[in-house]
Amino acid sequence: MRPILPALLALCLSSQPSLAACGGGFGSFVQGLKAEAVQRGHAATTVDRFFASVRQDPKVIKADRAQGVFQLDFTTFARRLISQNRVNSGVSNAKKYDRVFDRIEADYGVDRGVLLAFWAFETDYGAFQGDFNTLNALATLAHDCRRPDLFRPQIFAALELFEHGDFDPARTTGAWAGEIGMVQMLPGDIIENGVDGDGDGHVDLKGSAPDALMSGAKMLRHLGWRSNQPWIQEITLPQQMDWSWTGLRTTLTPAEWEKVGVRPRSGRWLSNQPASVIIPQGHKGPAFLAYPNFNVYFEWNQSFTYVLTAAYFATRLQGAPVFDAGNPDPGLSGAQMKQLQKKLSARGYDVGKVDGILGAKTREAVQAVQKQLGLPADAWPTTGLLNRL
């Protein structure tokens, strides 16, 4: 499974205030890249060798446009991704790399479950790391005029890796969005956060699990991960409460949530940090308390459903039970979601792109209109809401 947006696309190494032109002929575009590389101080002969094999890849654009899996609700998505085989492999890899995880927890404060979950979802513990040529993917996406500022700097980061002997422009492969290795990191992130975990003098995220896991941990810490702190905890909800308090915009301490009837599903609260109640399928479905570390997940991936699934799976790998799916009201189909987004947009709500995906902006708009209509403001759109609109 590949993320809805590449891992950490928002972090670009380039300090350039604006990036050069996209579009036009691909050959001319590559010539512009080469000229800029020389201006950045790279030797012309090195630049020629780096770009010698670059080609435009239409399959990359097709993959970028086709991400319908994110229209699934949380329970369906989670059950699809969290197989018993992934659970068993997670337990096995936790034992196999126990010393590596001990180092990670000591140096970066990132729990092993967090990294195991990313490792599982991104590449099935390294078994499938993507077969797209990385340089071709980055150049194709940088040439495409939708997000050139996100991808163009990664080309020059890959050039720097090439100079270090850690990138082969003709043979390095990965995800369609240019991510490399077992935990799928962009070239710029490798330069900034890469760790030589096995001590061989190179950062090899494709072939070395210690390198990949330690690099992922360093990146999470760089993004603001709070050492040895929780990220989510499953909870139970009261029959009635002000559902508009749910969602990431509202934070209360666990003690304050207790006053309105929120309880841990098992055990005790994991922290006294301010946290948010998140109910991905409304007040009748699964429920979790999201601590500050949960927000760091969105720096890795911007899909709410993916992020929550990865965060939950991390707890599962550390002993949490299967979550209680509850009995949520049926959600909307992709076509119905687009219809809802159009209706909300017509009412003046900002839903972002009309794409049939229940993203953050659509959730906020749904919650606002539910409150306006006197419905439970739990941000879960149903056919009843669609009909009311």
How helical, in percent, are the residues? 40-55%
- Level-2 CATH architecture of the domain at 232-316: Orthogonal Bundle
Given this structure, which CATH class of the domain at 232-316 is correct? Answer: Mainly Alpha
Query: How many distinct beta strands?
Result: 6
Strand order of the largest sheet: 4-3-6-5
Could you tell me the strand content as a percent range?
A: under 5%
Name the helix and strand elements from N-terminus to C-terminus, one letter apiece.
HHHHHHHEHHEHHEHEEEHHHHH
Based on Cα principal axes, name the global outline: globular
N/C terminus separation: 34 Å
Q: What value does the average pLDDT take?
A: 92
What structural class is derived from the secondary structure elements?
Answer: mainly alpha
